[in-house]
Write a structure and sequence with these properties.
The chain is α/β, with parallel strands linked by helices. It has helices at residues 2-18, 22-28, 32-45, 67-80, 83-96, 98-106, 121-124, 180-185, 222-238, 255-263, 266-271, 343-346, 348-358, 372-383, 395-398, and strands at 112-113, 126-130, 156-160, 168-173, 187-192, 201-208, 211-218, 243-245, 277-279, 283-285, 288-295, 300-305, 317-318, 325-331, 335-339, 362-366, 388-392, 406-411, 424-428, 433-434, 437-438, 444-449. Helices cover 33% and strands 24% of the residues. A hairpin with a 2-residue loop joins strand 6 (201-208) and strand 7 (211-218).
């Protein structure tokens, strides 16, 4: 199939280089009769793309039987400027490869890689991947807001690497069984943990190359903090949660291994009671601010580094060295997940590329911030992209605020039929604290529904 993928990528590159967005609006205005005539022309030149009875598009199983025909139509369309016909060819190929995309996804379950289905992705800066279904994502996502070629493609995820110059995109394909609990219940149960009321880190300010910088050093009790995380995970399991998310900055170097070992204990594995995805508190170390995502078995899915530094009010900038790597987590039923640590989510250009370029459907946002208003305002941009979001803040920073601060927010986007106010869930700190501990179980529970009415 690689030759087909390569040719499709070359055709898409041709569109990117030669066609403006007005063309896609023009194509949408075509009459059914004119589209049927184009299909008939393609069927005459590449009959194996269509069913033998002439009705419908056939599943493509032998690429060598159509490769020459596709290439011939491509060259003819380029020469005659038949852009409508060329786009229709891509739509037909997308439909004919639907079952193949399912196989491509299943064959990559549990794997992590940087490449794409087409081996020429570096040459043409176009990457093709199987597009996982998201239960709350509309089929016409984005089509009312921008004219793009991927508005017409349903089974392939098209990545335009020209807008990701000097970045690496790592792809992680989750096993279909991982989110089976959510699929059965038709909802994701989400647990937000503000975690703790003490900072347990020291901020060091200094001058480096005539720039004001700051670093963060963990000063807490690693064993006690890890025990807190374990208790939250157990509470989440009791509530049959699919996802648990902790805030930024409050992790330590031993936590990942300790929690992984805890999740791998035979008794837990036998009960199968752990949440499906656990985003640990981020760890600040050696000029990086990193969030580790574990699955319910204790396996590490990815470690996402923060890309955009935070600036203190006095002008000191977080001294991180961005690795320019983004981890895109693919999962059947939930689409595509991205982790954006605090300031990353507030960076407009980065967020735009994540939403429109990667078709992200769920963003996890660990934060340590006094500015929950900024996050709340940006949440609105996600609605038109059918992208849900989970934001959590640390109790320790909320306690420093004069007003009632938020420890978490959840956005329900997509085709769930609810009112605009019901799409936002906000969680404030109860304020009932004794010393460094909270008197109640320090979690907030929210549900992200799939495609149904919600009362």
């Amino acid at each position: 199939m690689e030759e087909i993928y390569n040719l499709m990528a070359e055709i898409i590159y041709y569109f990117f280089e030669n066609i403006n967005s007005d063309f896609y609006q023009h194509y949408n205005n075509r009459t059914k009769k004119s589209i049927d005539n184009i299909k008939s022309s393609i069927a005459h030149e590449i009959p194996r793309l269509f069913c033998a009875n002439g009705e419908g598009i056939a599943a493509l199983e032998t690429p060598e039987s159509v490769l020459c025909g596709i290439n011939s139509v491509f060259l003819s369309c380029k020469g005659n400027k038949e852009f409508d016909k060329l786009l229709q060819l891509l739509i037909i190929l997308d439909n004919s490869l639907e079952k193949q995309m399912r196989w491509e996804y299943e064959s990559r379950q549990g794997n992590c890689f940087e490449g794409c289905l087409n081996e020429n992705w570096k040459k043409y800066k176009i990457g093709l991947l199987p597009r996982c279904e998201c239960c709350w994502e509309r089929h016409h996502r984005g089509s009312q807001h921008y004219n793009r070629i991927d508005n017409f493609i349903q089974n392939f995820l098209i990545i335009d690497y020209r807008v990701w110059e000097n970045w690496r995109i790592m792809h992680h394909f989750l096993p279909t069984s991982l989110m089976a609990k959510a699929e059965e219940n038709k909802k994701l149960t989400v647990v937000i943990s503000p975690y703790k009321t003490g900072d347990d880190f020291a901020v060091k300010k200094y001058i480096s190359n005539e720039e004001q910088k700051f670093s963060v050093q963990y000063t807490g009790n690693a064993e006690a903090d890890t025990d807190k995380v374990k208790r939250v995970i157990d509470l989440a399991a009791e509530n049959r949660a699919s996802i648990v998310i902790f805030p930024e900055m409050l992790g330590n170097a031993t936590m990942e291994d300790a929690i992984s070992d805890y999740l791998m204990e035979p008794s837990r594995q036998e009960r199968g009671c752990s949440p499906d995805l656990i985003l640990l508190p981020t760890i600040w170390s050696d000029h990086t601010n990193t969030a580790c995502l574990l699955d319910g078995t204790g396996a590490t899915i990815c470690r996402q580094c923060k890309q955009y530094p935070y600036m203190l009010p006095d002008g000191y900038e977080e001294d991180i060295v961005p690795d320019r790597v983004i981890h895109l987590i693919h999962g059947e039923g939930i689409g595509r997940i991205v982790i954006m640590i605090c300031r990353d989510f507030l960076t407009a250009d980065y967020l735009s590329r994540v939403l429109t370029g990667l078709k992200t459907t769920l963003i996890l946002i660990p934060s340590y911030s006094t500015g929950d208003h900024d996050f709340e305002q940006i949440f609105g941009k996600l609605l038109s992209e059918d992208c849900c979001a989970i934001w959590t803040n640390a109790c320790s920073v909320v306690k420093k605020q004069q007003r009632e601060g938020k420890v978490g927010m959840v956005l329900q986007a997509g085709k769930v039929r609810v009112g605009i106010r019901e799409r936002y869930k906000e969680f404030t700190c109860p304020g009932a604290c004794e010393g460094q501990e909270c008197t109640d179980p320090n979690i907030r529970i929210c549900e992200l529904y799939y495609d149904r009415d919600v009362s």
